[in-house]
Amino acid sequence: MNLRQIISVALCGAVAAAGSFASDPAQQTQNKNTQQPVQVAERTQWQNSDHMFATCVAIGNQEEIVISRFAIDKTKNNDVKDFANMMVKDHQAFLMKLQKFAPEASREGYLMENASADGSRRTSGTPTTQQPGAVTQARAQAQGTDVNVKVGNIQQTAGTVNPQGQQFQHVDFMALHRELAENCIQQAKQGMSKKEGNEFDECFIGHQIVKHEEMKNALTVFQRHTQGELKQIFADGLSTTDKHLKRAEEIMKNLRSSSSNQRS
């Protein structure tokens, strides 16, 4: 896995987080204006914006835990192994803090529930989440909307039809964010599994540097839109993320120095 692949994998979560941040308030406004009955989903309930922010961050932490456990089993470098163990420990502790705001996404093994034996994502016919605001068939017809439409494993809820007859469907971006994270994990594992020794270590640490830069940006922005307890949790997470990033950069410097010495 080269640097471009590392960055591509790491940015998967950022794209999904941006989409969920932009779309959820609009969906909340639609529900409020139309007074549609909220259908309680089996897994996901969007009670407030804190839930959305916490879920985005929790998914990122879950992804870090999965990749770090993979690295623990593969690396033979003590510094890298210690770093990966620290990732698992610290990110699990952060998930504990997020449980109050995102209990579903903070659950142990959340991102591995849809994984097949080969590490790929199962695409069963039944979606795992459903966005609130779904309407009944009768009300949908009366309002000029269509009831839930399933595309792949992403739940799309009632779409609004504009005067030109074009239909705009509302996608559950949290389900999309989760699926992107699962796909990123699969791609990262496939790429890193082909590496050995120092090459693997540099690939894993490079991945961690990009992911922690991404998380710093997310936590910085999310703090601006939260208050109280969750705002403080994000502030603490930002401090820990910065510590992880600096340690990863130190390890990368040592790994590159070691590689340079071996070549000379």
Please summarize the sheet with the most strands: 4 strands, antiparallel
Number of helices: 7
What's the N-to-C terminus distance? 23 Å
Give me the secondary-structure category. Answer: alpha+beta
**How many β strands by DSSP?**
4
Work out the count of structural domains. 1
- Poorly predicted runs: 2-46, 123-157
Radius of gyration over C-alpha positions, nearest whole angstrom: 20 Å
Oligomeric assembly? single chain
The H-and-E topology, N to C, reads as: HHHHEEEEHHH
How much of the residues is beta strand, in percent? Answer: 5-15%
Report the CATH C-level class: Mainly Alpha
Concise structural overview:
64% of the residues lie in helices and 7% in strands. The protein is of the alpha+beta class. It has a single domain, classed as Up-down Bundle (Ferritin).
Describe what you observe in this structure.
The relative contact order is 0.17. The protein has a single domain (3-122, 173-263), classed as Ferritin, core subunit, four-helix bundle (Ferritin, Up-down Bundle). The chain is an alpha+beta fold and 264 residues long. Mean pLDDT is 74; it is low at 2-46 and 123-157. Strands 1, 2, 3 and 4 form a four-stranded antiparallel beta sheet that branches. The protein is built from seven helices and four strands.
Topology:
Elements (H helix, E strand, L loop, with lengths): L2 H32 L14 H26 L3 H21 L38 H6 L2 E2 L2 E3 L2 E8 L5 E5 L1 H20 L4 H27 L4 H36 L1
Antiparallel strand pairs: 1-3, 2-3, 3-4
